[in-house]
Amino acid sequence: MDRQQEFVLRTIEERDIRFMRLWFTDVQGSLKSVGVAPAELENAFTEGIGFDGSAIEGFARVYEADTLAMPDAATFQVVPWRGGEGAGIGRMFCDITLPDGTPSPADPRQVLRRALQKADERGFTFYTHPEIEFFLFERDLDGEGRPVPIDNAGYFDHLAQGDGHDFRRAAIDMLESMGIPVEFSHHEGAPGQNEIDLRYADALSTADNIMTFRAIVREVALSQDAFASFMPKPLAGHPGSGMHTHISLFEGDRNAFHEPGAEYQLSITGRRFVAGVLHHAREISAITNQWVNSYKRLWGGGEAPAHVCWGHNNRSAMVRIPMYKPTKVQSSRIELRTLDSACNPYLAYAVVLAAGLKGIEEEYELPAEAEDDVWSLTDGERRALGIQPLPASLHEAISAMEESELVAETLGEHVFDYFLRNKRQEWSDYRAQVTPFEIDRYLRQL
Prior knowledge:
Distance between the termini: 71 Å
Structural class: alpha+beta
Radius of gyration: 22 Å
Number of helices: 14
Number of strands: 18
Strand content: 15-25%
Largest sheet: 10 strands, mixed
């Protein structure tokens, strides 16, 4: 037993932890949880917790169902809500393995680990810093079955006694009590919409933090008689929720994206990384924007990126190069603006990293910068500038992903095949629906 595992067992005893939750994520990005008594935890560290993988989305077929959840002691935290009779609760993320101890090919955490290992072999550490947007709605829907935002505030509005302000304070207290530092928080542009930004960390820690973040946000919302949604576009006519992510590569303590004197102080490594992300943007969209509803956010305006381009402080671009701060060399970075806050962060960060590394390896040339508001250009003007559109629907994104060697290699055959099957079914189910829009527009006039 290693020192981290010994620390967990000692902490559980010292802090009277009565319940342990072991967390992991299915291929779709849903958080799964199994409870284990503290007395059984030492055995769980060495032998894992067995479960039926065929019952979890994308994990295994019936005839190969045996699967083990192996707790990762490095992720142990005491959760800020209490169990029965005020007993403490702990949680750890798990790595999923097969009975012979080999990593499960269906484990999204393992997909990201493989991508990070490839970066490490090239001397890089991949850091991410997400800005997570979400909506807060009243617990009950309105008379027509639509969600009701908890407020009518707008971007950066301060509500002296607003539910959103109280909510963000409670959520941040919980996050920071679990060792997840928060950088900023504020009300976003739509009614009931909020944003909380996590501090930068290595990508695996960030993905774990995002899954924890979603759980905490939902817990706090329920405690305040509301519910939280990470749906990309829940309200027509208002901006959707994204997860703009600031990205950097480090070589040891040196920021590989920084080069003094270069344009925007962005190094050749940084430029090639951006070129790789742009080059493969369409084929990774089904992962970064994995829901039917995702494309209503991307193509719904409100500064959402719908075209494959980059720009310096251009918030209509898919990739933005933030303003350089001369006193903060380590802060040189890029901002990827396509990601949904409802994506599977393990898979999304894995394909983004793979695309960027491909750009570095193949020495992709960065295309010309988009200096104008891309949304204000005509289709002809965008074509003349060589600016391609992102997929306009999940169907189009699936078609691009199907042909991608990069995504297939990054996800592995099992996850790649399952993900495509699942998304084809989602698109088929969506196409079969008769929507309120069609009823309102066509029922009486046709």
